[in-house]
Predict the structure.
Amino acid sequence: MIKEELVNSNWRVRKGRIIRVKRMTPSEKLFEIELDNGRAMDYEPGQFVQVSVFGVGEAPISLCSSPTKRGSFELCVRAAGRVTNAMHALEAGDEIGIRGPFGKGFPVKVLAGNDLIFVAGGLGIAPLRSLINYVIDNRREFGKVDILLGCRNPSEMLFADDLEFWQKRVDVNFNVTVDKGSPDWAGNIGLITSIIPGVTINPERTFAVVVGPPVMYKFVISELLKKKIAERNIILSLERHMKCGMGKCGHCQIDSIDNYYCCQDGPVFSYDRIKNVAKM
Amino acid sequence: MGTHTRYFILRKDDLNSFIVKLSRNHKVVAPVSKGYGNYAFTEVTSANDIALKHIPTILPPKKYFLPQKETMLSFSTGHVENAEALLEHENTVIFGVHTCDLNGIQCLNIVFSERPRDYNYLRRKDNITVIGLECTEYCDEHASCNLMNSNFPNGGYDLFFTDMGEVFMAHVNTQAGDDLVDSSNLFKPATQAQMEALYAIRDAKRSRFKDEVNVDRKKLPAIFDKSENSPVWKAIGDKCLGCGNCTNVCPTCYCFDIADTLNLDLKSGKRVRTWDSCEVETFAKVAGGENFRSGQAERLRHRHYRKFRFSLGKYYRFFCTGCGRCTRTCMAGIRLKETLTALVKEAA
């Protein structure tokens, strides 16, 4: 048996150094990461990376910073599985492994010149924040921008700094709702679908970008279709367990005749391409 | 008419000398009887152990291309730059590969050379020589190789042997195959009479092999287009135990898992790729708890679509070779030919 180093292996990882960790909620932390030698990562909003904690494993995490932010990138990580729990034990200065970026991100060139309505549910705000901040950094290229954010209760609200920043700006309309209020919550209470009807939409020139848990998609999409937004103008990012990132391992394959692998063909899809998938 | 330059004759008496010579410079593996009508590709150093007549081996030769366990990286915890991507391979000759399995290897070659490429697979493949062996009769009633168009040689080998009684006819398909023939000094060019004997064997085979399910292969994708909500999936899903035997023995199943194991020092370890199965309950589950194929019927349907529908769009071929292994190994008695027959009937 010959054993050798495989220099061109796609399984090689790059060194990432955690430069900042911020706890956002009891279960989510924000990690700011710098690649080896401070080289910028070349990525699109909506793409993801494979994060390695050696000895524990690898997990796919979506990039939540905008590529317009130079030098470092950010990952919002919920402690949900083995790798993400191990990540939560890491601190600034610790090393992690990075493969990627992988996948097709949000079609920013297609979105340019149109009105945008962002609909985020729960942790879906993480990949969407990458696009929202990209749009804000290139604000002149886009029409009207509405952000609709929903989460279960105020204590689960992510990215408080960004939310405040979006709320203050005159060039975006920001709306947030929680399923269940708390004594100090003065905002909307109700499902995310309850705040869609109130948004003024010109269906001729509007793209809706929706990211949330699978259970949310059906209801949000039906509201958007009621607003006469075309199926191909509804953009979603799907969740699957992307293990290899290279369209091989099979775990992220989507049940559709088109044989989509979430890691290579997605995770971003327009609704018309995946509307026959039973469980989005 | 002179001799045929790409067809050679090896006397059966000389097969042993050929294998012995090969085993001096290569690891040689071939089908060996394991008892109870089972065969397995096993290392050999002579022809004595080789089962020239064998039904498809328990595992297809994919185990040499995509090992059940493979180290992809070695690492030390906490220090990313120490991680090294690894390749383990061995100069191997696989002897006695049936046409169904040649087809399976060709399918895998396409998958792993698709970008982003899997260099572990591709480099290992380059170090493997494949010698095919023709089936002149059906192995058993579970095969559907005529339906899947994989009972005649269609590339995928360096050398291809056909048993012609006293001698083997050997077709040379690659330079590597020719080099083996040349260096062994055991082969003679085939004569015109021997070529005609080969054609006669093929003609006889054509009359013996018939489509094992009553359907035109070309219509299968359209039938699957109509079968998404077929009751067949629930019927076989109710029987299925979700054990993953069918995917392990399938020559074209390549789904895998990747996981870290730590060495006893708890400071170093390796990242290992192992075979996985879409039939296992957790296969499409995510950390948040959602399972995108939570029922056994959905998982079985997925596997069948990967063989007869999805691969058509992506790779322009079926990913079923008709070898029959899934049926032979199934503990629940799910039979591929019956499943296809039911779908065909329903769609009619």
